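Data deposition worksheet. Section B asks for the primary sequence of the deposited chain exactly as it was used as input, without tags or linkers unless they were present during the calculation. Section C holds the resulting structure in token form. Section D is free text for depositor observations; keep each observation to a single sentence. Incomplete worksheets are returned to the depositor.
Section A, Depositor: J.P.
Section B:
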Amino acid sequence: MSDARLRMAASQCGADTASFESVEFPFGHAAISGKHGWIYVAEQHSRALSPALLWAGKHGVESLNILSEVNADVLARRAQLFNFDIAVWSVSNGQVLRATAAQPLADVKVLDSHERLALMIETSGAEVVREHGLLTGEVMGLEVCRVLNDDVGDGARLEIGVGAHDRETFQLVHGRDATVESLARVVGIVREHRTEGSVPHPLNRLAPERMLRHRIVLSPELVGAQQLQPVEPPIIRMNVKDEMPCVALGSLPGGLPVVVVCTASIDVDVVAFGADARLRTSPDAELLIATHANNVTPSLHKLAQSLRNPARFVEVSPVRR
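Section C:
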């Protein structure tokens, strides 16, 4: 990402680029002019808002302009949730326009043909999960099967495996038609590997944030909640093996609503993600960000307090291996 590209785009926004001082930014290129900051996002576009705000705080920026060719509408939606002067600009074919905030994703119901396979998933011992119209089965937070469209039969089939390649391999070895018995065997193997005290294994290293959510749904007192249930995230998870925060909705002692966002790493964008999750799920709820101990930095604490409706972090000890 060249400094010239940032300057050309910023000049269309009315900025005096002659006074720009280039400053390093991990996801693109940035510059400062007085108390005004300018960032051209080049990668991880939808995850760039919290890093941009941390950058602004580090450099004493009071007014932040973010330019992006991708997901500018999502960034604009999330920017409105912070008590900070942020302008988000959409760049397309060399033209720069003020981004319009996207609406939260609409609810998508699981197809009836897919829903009929939910009982099979439940009977196997897996947890039935519905996210953005997709029906899957999880074991302690790890997806072990999903229902997909099929051109034969009733238009739906259940595939067993962790991720697309694993599902394909399972079909090559065991055939196209999944059974309750074959799924139950996989559920048992995965559960054994993900149980506390098991030896380190790829099956207990995957989806650590969903493992954390599984634990706090079973024991909501870990985060000071009264009851919790899984809900879908504010954006669609594209790959089961990608780490992305996950969400639970419930209540605190006394009945006040709470949204809990789970992450298992030092995730610099989790505050913006969490605020977006609350906006979609329960806008007036308290927002808790649950993570493993020692993952919360002072700057993340400060960022959580900069939301128009502040959030707070809750640290949970990780599972012992």
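Section D:
The first strand starts at residue 21 and ends at 25.
Residues 22 and 31 are 4 Å apart (CA to CA).
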